[in-house]
């Protein structure tokens, strides 16, 4: 087992580091097709952007004869949906384009994908973390993937209780609560807390895309975490739906008390480097080394057994896994069949490829009204890692079906 783990780790290291050498494709050896990737900027979703950069190092940039075309959506995306749609359609103008990966799939992606399908039905469309109506986007996307927000509505409260919390504070704002996966997750969290004996409370922060911007939203969190700890006690665990507000949340929890199980889009890079002043440039791309260094910093700062994450970034891994799936599908190596167990196996295989040693679980989204599965919407769960303690074993728990039916 140790030898197998070592071999996998070495292979991943070769793929994600300079040891990989020159990109597989270049001007002298051009790629036979292109894969487009759209992510947020560093300020909105750094992990996804880094995943795209890693793929360009492996397969080369299309402008240089490589396989990958990468563009970013605007930071103020709610009011610039036409720009987002334009980016998607623009990729389809490339005659060599055979797949488009968009993550996080923000407002405008459904319409952009719809227009691409009308124009180029041969392009495979893959959406990560959709933020629009799940039925509508799964009608135009070939595959949608999301963190298993249904199961996490149970596992996050359960994890919080396992490490000593007596309260779960859910932090968000109206725009996010209009996104179905986020609102469903909160609903299940509330029911779960009641059943396992946790107090569930809601706090609202400014929307980072609003007038105050990201800086104003972060300042609000910095100023209010002490207030919330006074209000709910130092055994309160906090969950926040905004990636940008995670850093000040972690900073204050580490300093003052409380618990933090994992972020909405889980990643060891989500908030920790900025909150604790951790320099990770020498660990770039090596997720095991990143986790180890962050863990040491968390423990040194007094956060042992109180703060956690997924060991591998979901955003980073989703970009890599979906693009790798697309490549295999285009090359005829995968037999894509919506709703099949084989598709789930293919997707998990791609996630495992970039996450040596981690444990993933995948399943199809089940409609709470009809009980039918959505054959193109896949939910993924990775076990939670608590710094100073290790994995909580949450991927092995049985999810109570009553939450699925009553949400």
Which characteristics define this entry?
407 residues; alpha/beta; seven-stranded mixed sheet; four-stranded parallel sheet; 18% strand; disordered N terminus
Stretches with pLDDT under 50, minimum 5 residues? 1-19
Strand order of the largest sheet: 2-1-3-4-5-12-11
- Terminal Cα separation, in Å? 41 Å
Number of helices: 15
Structural class: alpha/beta
What helical percentage do the residues reach?
Answer: 40-55%
Number of strands: 14
Could you tell me the mean pLDDT? 91
Order of helices and strands: HEHEHEHEHEHEHHEHEHEHHEHHEEEEH
As a percent range, the share of strand residues is 15-25%
Q: Label the overall shape.
A: globular
Question: Using only CA atoms, what is the Rg?
Answer: 20 Å
The major pleated sheet works out as: 7 strands, mixed
Characterization of this structure:
The chain is α/β, with parallel strands linked by helices and 407 residues long. Helices cover 45% and strands 18% of the residues. It contains 15 helices and 14 strands. The strands form 3 sheets. The chain has a 7-stranded mixed β-sheet with strand order 2-1-3-4-5-12-11, with helices on both faces. A 4-stranded parallel β-sheet has the order 7-6-8-9, with helices on both faces. The radius of gyration is 20 Å and the shape is globular. It starts with a helix and ends with a helix. Residues 1-19 have low confidence and may be disordered.
